[in-house]
Structures are given as C-alpha cells and as structure tokens.
Structures
1.
Amino acid sequence: MKQPSPLAQARSFLFVPGNRPERFEKAARSGADAVVLDLEDAVPPGDKDAARQAVMEALPGLAAIGTALVVRINALAPAADPADLRALATVAAQGAPVGVMLPKAESAAQVQAVLATMGAAVPVLPLIESAAGWQALPAIAAAPGVLRLVVGHIDFMADTGLQCGEDEAELAPLRFAVAMATRLNALAPAVDGVTVAIHDDARLRLDTQRALRFGFGAKLCIHPRQVAVVHEALAPSAEEADWARRVLAADAQAGGAAVQVDGRMVDLPVVLQARRLLARVRDTAN
C-alpha cells in the first residue's frame, strides 16, 4: 500500500531563502517537520537563477537528512517561464522526494501545470493569498495532486486592502473557507500563515491556537525558534488527552451505545472528536 506523504502530517513548515545555501542544512536539522526552500518572495530578483541552482544542488543531500522538503516556486504567471519546475523535475527524477508550494494559486490549471511537469505523484500545496485565489478555492482544492491548502494571509491583505487588527478577525472568512474546502475534498489539514513577530512567543502561540480552532494542522514558520512553540501549541494538554482516552474506553465498553463520561453524554460525534484529538497526540510526540 502506498505510504502517505510525510508532508501530510507535518506541523511546521520552516522557510529558508533559496539564496542562503549555508542555512539549508541548519533548517533541515532544526526540528521542523518540513523545510520550505524558497525561490519566491525571500529571493531578490537578481538572485533568482543562483538560488534555483543552489536549491537543486542541495536537494539530494538534504533529502538524506530525512526532513520533509518543499520548494516554493515562483508564481506561475501565464507568460512566465516555468524554469523552477523544469529544474525541480530533473532533481526529483533522480530520487529526491520533494513537494511543490504553489504561490499565488488562482486556478486549478496552475496545479495541473505543476503535475504536467513534475508528474502526477508530486504533492502540491497551493498558497491562497489573493481575492482571485479565494474565488477559485473550490476548484483549486478539488484539483488532483493537491495535498494541503496553505493560507498566505500577508499577501492576501496586500491584494485585497484588508487592514487587520491584532486578532485578524477580518480574515476569519478566509480561514473558514479554507477549512471547509479542506474537509469537502478530504485533504490533509490546512496550513496557516506566518507570524512575523519572531521573538513574540505569546503572539505565536495565540496565532497557532487560532489556527487549530479553525481545524488547521500546521503553520508556516520564518525562524527556527518558532518551531518548538508551534509544536507545543498544537499539542493537546494532558487533561485533554486523558479525557479523549476515557471517552474511547467508555465507548468501547458500551459497544457503540450512548454513554456518559464526566456527566456528559458521549455519542458518535464526541467519539470522533476524541479520536482526532488523540491523533494530534501521536503527531506531536516528537
């Protein structure tokens, strides 16, 4: 049976600029579940070619470390040369497992363009970061090859003119739409955007917990120190895990009939909630 992509279970996606090859191995050994080698926003226009070459040369060695790898390519504009994909396809054909993060995703055709070059097996993670991406979300989420949806809220605000407060309540409709598209298409849990305050652990924890409330399962990180905080925030508390285990034990003993735990009725929806929570315990064991 085909094994699921490790990118489907990743909790943290750590960005590293493609033009900083001296940081690649450090990122891969940082404890992040996945490393995103970035050819897009983190790389100045004049460094694009050199960054592409550096990433392609490093991929085989990084793959041997065992951390899941993703390359964020440059946006697939209609007339753009897909040089990133062509180079990546060559490296992937040599056995380096890698996913593709697709920025400015605004159509299912863009996902298809990735598969046409990379092959049907490549996991694609579209970034929803524009009004056009939000409008095309149902088609993007349903496109073959899509593994997880990713929220790029900084670019989304720039594109739409939204001005968010600290709690980003204005972006709740976007996160809800991504959560529903994820569920409707049975995708791996969505990935939330970055927290730009690198040294504000409290803000990062709150942002990660908000993502979890929307059903997201991972977060983009821009510094290695953010990884441990994200993993901690995504992990259930000991009390939550104990409750979930008692719910499943009571359900098993009742043979699927309704039963009470802590004075509250337990039926199938509660059992499913307990199972999802315990799955997070396993996912956050490292």
Note: The mean pLDDT is 91.
2.
Amino acid sequence: MRIGLAADNGNWHKARLKAALEHLGAEPVLFSLADVAIETGGREPLRVPGFADALPDGVLLRTVAGGTFEATTLRLGVLHALVASGTTVWNSPTAIERSVDKAMTSLLIDRAGLPTPGTFVCSKRAAAAEIVAREAGPGRPLVLKPLFGSQGEGLQLIETPDDLPDEDAVSRVYYLQRYVARSDGLWRDYRVFVCEGRAIAGMIREGDGWITNVHRGGRPLPWAMPPAAAELAEAAAAAVGVDYTGVDLVEDGQGGFLVLEVNSMPAWSGLQKVTEVDIALAVARGFLAAVRAARPPRLVSALG
C-alpha cells in the first residue's frame, strides 16, 4: 500500500506519522500539495510527486501548504479530485473547508445542538461595532479571532467598539465569540483528540495569560477526561465531519463544557507529553483501515 503523506512543515509530526505508517506495513511517500500538477490529455491528469504511474492508495494530510487564495483553492481542488478518483484522503477536503473556516464550524456546531459560546460573524466594522456595543463591555469581552488562523495567533479581546481594528486588518471578516472566564481565575481550557469518532486522549492547557495554546507558551497537563467531555468532543467531530481532530473545550461554569474549535490539522506534541496513547500510531491505524475499507475487493480465481 503506497501512501502519500502531505507535510510541508513540522518535522516532529512528520517523522512520527511516517514511522507509524511504516510500522503498520505501508509505504509512505512524503510530498507537498504545492508540488502537485495537473496535465490534461494523458491517462491520469493529476501528477502527484512520487507516484508516476498511478495515484496514491491514500493521502494523509499533516499540513496544506500555505499561499494565496488562488493557491489554496488549487490545493483544495486537487484534494477533491483525489477523492473523486477513489483515493482516501484524511482529513477530507470538505472537512478541511468546514473546520478551517471558523464561521462554518460554529454554524455546524450550533445546528447540531451542541453547546458553544455565543458567536457573531459579519463583514462590516459598523455591524461589528453594534454587536460589541450590545454584547460586550468592561470585564465581559468578546474574543476577535482570524477566520483562518490557528495556534492562538491573532486573538484579541474586545470590550468596546473602539477596540475593533479596521476592516482590512481582519480581511473584512469580524469573527467574534463570547469570552468564557473561569470563576477561579485560572487561564485553562482543554484539548481532546478524536480519531475515528472516538476520543482517545485529552489534556489540560494552562497558561500565564488568557491564550493557552501550547505554541504560545501554554503548559500541557494530564487530564482524567470526564465522559461528558469525551462525548461532546466526539459529537463536535461528527458535526464537522473530521476523521481525526483536536477539539478545544472550555468549562461552562455549570459543570459542563462548551466547544470552542474543531481543528482539521491538529498538532499533538504537547498532548503526547502527557498521555500514554501513541497518537501518531492511532491516526495511522485508523487511516489505513479506511484505505483498506475503500479499496474494491480483489477477484479470486476458482483455483485460488
């Protein structure tokens, strides 16, 4: 089984996934979506590096190469074309589109009836100012997040309309979510890793400030994950349609949890430090099982 492993950065994750796939008997071929080309007129118009004669049996995505809107559209189009050709892709391009777009994630989570902080999305600064004036105030801010963003980059607390940046600074999209403060004053939330529909590991993320992402200095701590948190994370993953994901939760102050985000290309180096579950191996095993399940059964002759 020849597998495409799409990874442009993150050497630690790349190495763990490659080793896990090899351990399970697959042949992973590293490539970048930025290097995939389309050449029509031949037998197979998709040209994937390392796969000269046929498409991969499956493609496991660790990262999607960044770039312009046009470049990103092309790379997602390539993934859609792979799926249409019968190649198993984890996570699927549809799931990536849903989770990278925080507004769509929030919409799907809410439509599934899952608890999540109040969220407001608009394009005009005047509309955002009206929302902030109505919903926020000193000591009860909204969180302004980039629509496309990860690892805690670009987050801002907004208490008054004057705190809002100009439209160009937010790419003309204001994504605002109610900030949920803890009664004990700790800066703490939770990450649950879901694979194949099952919560397999979780951690506490604790910071010295309100942004707790490990990439931004948050500390991963062991967590005896409550069943309610696991079930909520699994439901969130199902609502967005991701095969493997990191679901971010926060306590609601009433003994339950709220869904903050669902990540389609999660990092797990911090989580791996505080769990005995081999996360790369779990992802590789689930992915290869999906590849095998999607392959047509081989015909066996009467002579065996």
Note: Helices lie at 11-23, 69-84, 93-100, 102-111, 125-135, 227-240, 269-272, 279-294.
